[in-house]
Design a protein that fits this description.
CATH architecture: 3-Layer(aba) Sandwich
Strand content: 15-25%
Number of strands: 5
Helix content: 40-55%
Oligomer: single chain
Structural class: alpha/beta
Number of helices: 8
Length: 178
């Protein structure tokens, strides 16, 4: 199974994914680990960046094709406005479909004030994540890419802890037979 957590920076994707991975004995593919590797050799946003990021995801998906009975959790902040973001989402979704691997997409959101409070957490800067609330506010004009798929869930994390959010995801997975 592939679980894809998507949402704005600071909504809690990685925190929730870590809890979920522990509880589900799953493998976590954090988008920042991939991004950090790619930006170590090319400029973020360049054509080389997009190409290498896609290749890195392909390598991971190839590995998954050899272990399809495992659970994999991907985290991303993919915008509907950017073709390369839609392509990255579709790369994972189409891989799952073509390999008969269940694909569950989870959209996490929260209100802007909560998001601004969360985005400044100290540990975010250590991972090269967005930490400026003013930059976050500029991003609020973008729409997180969340096309209709068979298994999709949206969770507003504004008043939920990461543990509660993870529990909601686990409950949803159980309810759809996983």
């Amino acid at each position: 199974m592939i679980i894809h957590l998507n949402g704005m920076p600071g909504v809690g994707k990685l925190t929730v994914a870590n809890i979920l991975a522990k509880n589900a004995n799953a493998h976590l593919v954090d988008n920042h680990l991939l991004i950090d590797m790619v930006v170590s050799v090319c400029d973020r946003g360049s054509a080389d960046y997009q190409k290498l990021l896609k290749e890195m995801v392909s390598v991971i998906l190839h590995h998954i094709s050899n272990s399809p009975n495992q659970v994999y959790i991907f985290t991303n902040a993919l915008s509907a406005e950017y073709e390369e973001d839609r392509q990255r989402f579709d790369q994972i979704r189409l891989f799952a479909e073509s390999n008969n691997i269940p694909f569950v997409q989870i959209l996490l959101s929260c209100d802007l004030e909560t998001n601004k409070q969360r985005v400044v957490f100290e540990g975010r800067s250590l991972k090269g994540k967005l930490t400026n609330p003013d930059e976050l506010e500029k991003l609020k004009g973008y729409t997180i890419y969340h096309p209709t798929t068979q298994y999709a869930l949206t969770i507003d994390t504004t008043s939920l802890s990461a543990e509660q959010t993870s529990a909601k995801i686990q409950e949803y997975l159980k309810g759809i037979g996983f």
